[in-house]
Amino acid sequence: MTSTHDRDPADPGPVVRTGPDGTGLELGAFLDWGRDLHHQGRYEDAVKAFELILGVDRGNEEALIGRNRAVRRAVPRWHWEMLHDEERAELYDRAIRQAVAADPDALVLDIGAGSGLLAMMAARAGARRVVACEGQPSVAETTARVVRAAGYDDAVTVVSKMSTRMSVPADLPRRAGLLVTEIVDCGLLGEGILGTIAHAREHLLAPDATIMPSRGRIVAQLVESDALHRKNHVGKLYGFDLAPFNRLSTLEYFDSRLHRHEHRVLSEPVTVFDFDFRTADARPQRTELRIRPTAPGRLHAVVFWFEMELLPGITVGNPPGRDSHWKQAIQCLPAVQRVQPGEPVVLDAMHDGECVRFKVATGEPAGEPLDDPVFEVVS
Questions:
Q1: Where is the signal peptide (predicted)?
Q2: Do residues 128 and 94 lie in contact, with contact meaning Cβ atoms separated by under 8 Å?
């Protein structure tokens, strides 16, 4: 719906015009509407409601606060930390310049454009046409402003749509020759990179398109850490047995910086999954790993991270110790198990296309398992 915003001096208070007949609602009603949308979890719609008010009363403090609260819900805070990740930006910039130099006429598709940084890097490198796809409306609108302010709006077009809803020629003038994307979380798969790239290969990319990143692998390590264990487990405290509360603990992984928690590594890092994004799809996979502990200890968690090859020789990732905006992925185990060097730990690793999870399949756990199964079986 297209709305016009006018202030009518004849009215006792400011109104938001919603149609050519001059009818409107008082701002109080729009404030209530925006708050109701927020409480319903419709944060993008709440942003629009508050922006209607700000269109006629730019300094309305209630609307400013309401809009900001909705934006904070709709737009994750990690955007800012990611933008300040200089190593990640420099590596992507180097890879983009190399790919664009090889074919400046190739249409570039940036999926999950965010601020538009990678799309503008492609334009700065000499790409003549870039389509930046961003699924969050508030972010997409702001991306277009960023691109316009930077002077790249002649080369970069922002599409406010999920890439899986895009098509040629409705959203792309032709199939793209270069795909650039960074839709990964700390565990690599959590933002749907496998399915997104598979869809793009089928519907949006030329057969010989360059895909960036081209590969991604997941690396895991066994860890002893009471500090990590306490982040997801509780027992007897203050004279009470609080263990039943563990039914609400996280069954899969959460993100945290390993070096900020006292820990001991119990094994060497091992590669769990290795994806070629030029061919991989989102079908579930399962693999069994035999890991030989390098030290005795109590196995509290599996810590894992990714390494992405943008182009041959250019790799970005989030291993422990690297100052990346991506933290490490931590999966705490439901029961503590003692391990010894020379006694292999069988680690059952699986993914469903969007989430990696682990199960220790050897030995009898020494702790108290949860009442219900923790791991789903992936066939």
A1: none
A2: no
Domain end among 74, 104, 139: 74
| Dist CA 147 CA 56 (whole Å) | 26
Q: Write out pLDDT tens, residues 25-39.
A: 577 888 999 999 999
The pTM for the full model equals: 0.84
Is 191 tagged catalytic? yes
**Do 351 and 227 fall within a single domain?**
yes
252/354 same-domain check: yes
How do residues 99-156 score in pLDDT, each as one tens digit? 999 999 999 999 999 999 999 999 999 999 999 999 999 999 999 999 999 999 999 9
Among candidate residues 182, 205, 228, the one where a domain is terminated: 182
Q: What span, in angstroms and rounded, lies between the C-alpha atoms of 10 and 280?
A: 63
141 catalytic? Reply is no
Instruction: Look at residue 351 and tell me if it is in a domain.
Output: yes
Instruction: Give the whole-angstrom CA distance, residue 124 versus residue 120.
Output: 6
Q: Is residue 113 part of a domain?
A: yes
Q: Which domain holds residue 90?
A: 85-182
The catalytic position among 191, 252, 354, 376 is 191
